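Mods, move this if it's the wrong board.
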Amino acid sequence: MKHLGARFSGALLTSIMAVAQPGMAQETPGYNTEIPQGIMTPDEVDSSIGTLKFFDGAPYPETAEAAYDYLDRMHGVDAFLKGMPGASAQGLIKGAHSLGAVEAHQVVIFDNLMDSNSLFLTGNTSTVYVLPDLDLKRDGPTVVEAPAGMLGAFNDAWFRYVQDVGPAGPDKGEGGKYLVLPPGYEGDVPDGYFVVEPKTYTLWLFMRASIADGLEAAVQGVKDNLRVYPLSQKDNPPEMEFISGSGKVFNTIHSNDYSFYEHLNEVVQYEPLGMLDQETRGLFASIGIEKGKPFEPDARMEEILTDAVALGNTIARSILWYPRVDGEMSGIEVYPGDDSAWMMGWVDKNVFFNGADGMTMNSAARVTFHYPYTAVTPAMAVTIPGAGSDYGMAYVDASKQPLDGSKTYRVHLPPEPPVNNFWALTVYDNQTRSQLQTSQLLPSVGSQTEGIRMNDDGSYDIYFGPEAPDGYENNWLETVPGKGWFVALRMYGPLEPWIEKTWRPGEVELVEMD
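Not the wrong board. Structure tokens:
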């Protein structure tokens, strides 16, 4: 700093030094005679990270070291919360690859429905999932020939919505050819395709086939009509390989330990620079994740990031289990202001997390979706009477306590659940946010359950616990002592009483067993 001090004359330096000390009078006419205490830094400050010590505003080395540790930890927590969408999308694709679905023409299909063997965020047991993934860096422009009647969407490597497939997409449910172009593509674009232009090389395409006409017919319809191949092979596309995910043990969920950052780095290194905005790139760079550079944290930084991911995981789970409905999570309650535990997956049914004004990012809303759920499309947040589906999620009981697998609970559904198709309750594991693994391979009960017991007034009582109450064996979902769980209520083809909230499910009530 000598070169700066040398620029000041003695008189001017004396004036500046007067300003630099609290309470010191200033002789220069027209200047304040005292500095407001509120802008000063005391020599000692008690804080959540200890006592911070300064010499007239200059931090001592040990204080600066503590400050940097805290700053790096904050950046690590923020990187976990902001990086979750990319890590989750990568987890889904890695899970498919672990089954052998590596090339574009190799596609995972849950041909016998999704069961609790696989670790897959809040998957349901009632539709045929079909999950191609694309690598445009490897294959260049890629064609997806979508069958008629499919529901789905393209999501990019940062789990952002790109394009719908099906009734909400340009094929309008009739099926058609989609051409997916790599970022920055400048080649010719042939006619006859619905063109998709993502910001990333990697894409995950989730599609669902209805089983209204039977499971076998749904699966065969997919296998007969779905085609995925590079455009360069359009004249001689490879034969499709459909790989069953049903009954398979595999993982699609991102980690919640230090390895999270390693996985995040893989995404950043593989995808184009334009995948992320400048601020997010800067955040990741602050913890050592920067495109084109190795991620090699030293022992100090690795310890800090290990702590940061533990804090980030705790924050994510706190937002999910106990959303601040009077704050940034206002709009997530199914029954606002009624002290109900039933929550929606989307705050205000906004899949872009950008607030009511379309411009203000709600990071808590983004976390509460991406931590337990997958698949982003506006079509999933639009409620059309008699069509599509709608959801309610309960993470706690009526007393706002976590759901305990050693206890017995009941959900009462009033008469005539208002659905055009069917309703179902499914239980999930707190830890994995996947279907709870019990003796019930498909942990769901609903209107399609054989032998389900209806009460005399047309209502239903569904029980959750280690053992079924007598007479309610077909209305029961098994839970596991020592494990926590949560539940989803899915309404397929919801009708006006659900949409207008004149019909509502009961809370998850703790019941005493004899």
